[in-house]
Design goal:
CATH class: Alpha Beta
Bound molecules: coenzyme A
CATH topology: Aminopeptidase
Structural class: alpha+beta
CATH superfamily: Gcn5-related N-acetyltransferase (GNAT)
Helix content: 25-40%
Number of strands: 7
CATH architecture: 3-Layer(aba) Sandwich
Largest sheet: 7 strands, mixed
Oligomer: single chain
Shape: globular
Distance between the termini: 22 Å
Radius of gyration: 15 Å
């Protein structure tokens, strides 16, 4: 398993993973706009030259926010999500972040468990944050003192 920076030439594969993993997937335009931002970075997880997962993070001043982490359903529960999260946390540390935050659907037990196991705390709820499949978002935060 290899983690690399996302190359735009692989965006179609990322879009395929996005569609398989989310009920309200980002479009190509949304990805292109985020990728072109100087504050956002995306990474891919490759197994035998196949992209099987990706993750993105925004870093502005000392604040980092996880944009997304997704692993193809048939590759889940094999430690790939963990590897991508490790990469994002290490990257945020390198960028001098004092904390890493994110929003996650309340019903997304897999992701909430992954973040809780890695030192994130649930610090609040945004009511009805997700419009499609209306649902609350849980706000999670990882503080700099947890950086290894
Ligand atoms: C969340 C996600 C990225 C996890 O990826 P993964 O490769 O399956 O995760 P890992 O195998 O590295 O698992 C790491 C830990 O996450 C937790 N976890 C992962 N899947 C889980 C599940 N289905 N149920 C409960 N806990 C789960 C566990 O604590 C697991 O550790 P363990 O295997 O030692 O119990 C993956 O489920 C996914 O792509 N989901 C769809 C997209 C998504 O919801 N992304 C998050 C948006 S905020």
């Amino acid at each position: 398993m290899k983690i690399d920076s996302l190359c735009v030439c692989n965006l179609d594969k990322v879009l395929e993973i996005e569609k398989k993993c989310f009920s309200d997937p980002w479009t190509k335009t949304m990805f292109l706009s985020e990728i072109s931002s100087k504050f956002a970075w995306f990474f891919t997880a490759c197994e035998e030259d196949e992209i099987v997962g990706f993750a993105g993070i925004r870093c502005v001043l000392d604040e980092a926010e996880i944009i997304n982490i997704a692993v193809l359903p048939e590759y889940q529960r094999r430690g790939i999500g963990q590897m991508l999260l490790d990469k994002l946390i290490a990257f945020a540390k390198e960028k001098g972040a004092s904390f890493v935050s994110l929003e996650v659907r309340k019903s997304n037990q897999a992701a909430r468990r992954l973040y809780l196991n890695n030192g994130f705390k649930e610090i609040g709820v945004r009511k009805g944050y997700y419009e499609k499949g209306r649902e609350d978002a849980v706000i999670m935060r990882f503080d700099a003192e947890k950086f290894s």
